[in-house]
Design brief:
The chain is mostly helical and about 180 residues long. It has 9 helices and 2 strands; from the N terminus they run αββαααααααα. Helices cover about 60% and strands about 5% of the residues.
């Protein structure tokens, strides 16, 4: 789950099954009482219909935590120029980065850094489409060392310059939960 609408959709499905929520966050739900086997089956089916799946595998849960932390960080628009993914994830997850990195690459088929760049690219697209910020402001907010670096990375990922993308509009944006893992 990567957005407020996702949280609402999942919460609605839980309410339909009369499951009381203690806490709901991106990628996590904590219930007041354990669901019955039948409720779990129904929840799994309902979530699949709306494009979600239950994760009960520890590795997959860890991957979702990593993704959610990185998505939240990018969405905050507050990345300092020398932002360290290594420090951020190690501190947030209380795990050794080499373990986190190996696990992520093994499961997702790309590195954490590549995933992070894809997320930043989607945020750039969002800001370009909505015209909220100019390239210099976007570059600063996403921690790029320069507009040239942002533009170069953007073109490498999308095949378009940021200005050309802006002219094309929103048809090239992807919902954050649909960003495909691909080599960067």
């Amino acid at each position: 789950m990567v957005c407020h609408r996702c949280l609402m959709a999942v919460n609605q499905e839980l309410e339909k099954l009369h499951l009381e929520v203690r806490r709901i966050n991106l990628g996590e739900v904590e219930l007041l009482k354990a669901p019955t086997a039948k409720q779990m089956q129904q929840l799994t089916e309902r979530l699949n219909v709306i494009g979600f799946e239950l994760l009960d595998d520890q590795k997959q849960k860890q991957i979702e935590k990593i993704k959610n932390l990185l998505i939240k960080k990018v969405q905050s628009g507050e990345l300092e120029e020398h932002f360290s993914i290594i420090d951020y994830l190690s501190k947030s997850l209380h795990k050794d980065y080499s373990y986190i990195s190996r696990l992520f690459s093994e499961v997702e088929g790309i590195t954490i850094e590549q995933f992070f760049i894809l997320q930043k690219t989607e945020k750039v697209k969002e800001w370009l489409v909505y015209g909220e910020l100019n390239l210099s402001e976007i570059s600063y907010k996403l921690g790029y060392s320069s507009v040239a670096h942002l533009s170069s990375q953007f073109k490498k990922i999308t095949g378009l310059t940021p200005s050309h993308f802006k002219k094309l509009g929103s048809s090239h944006r992807h919902p954050l939960d649909k960003v495909k893992s691909k080599k960067v």
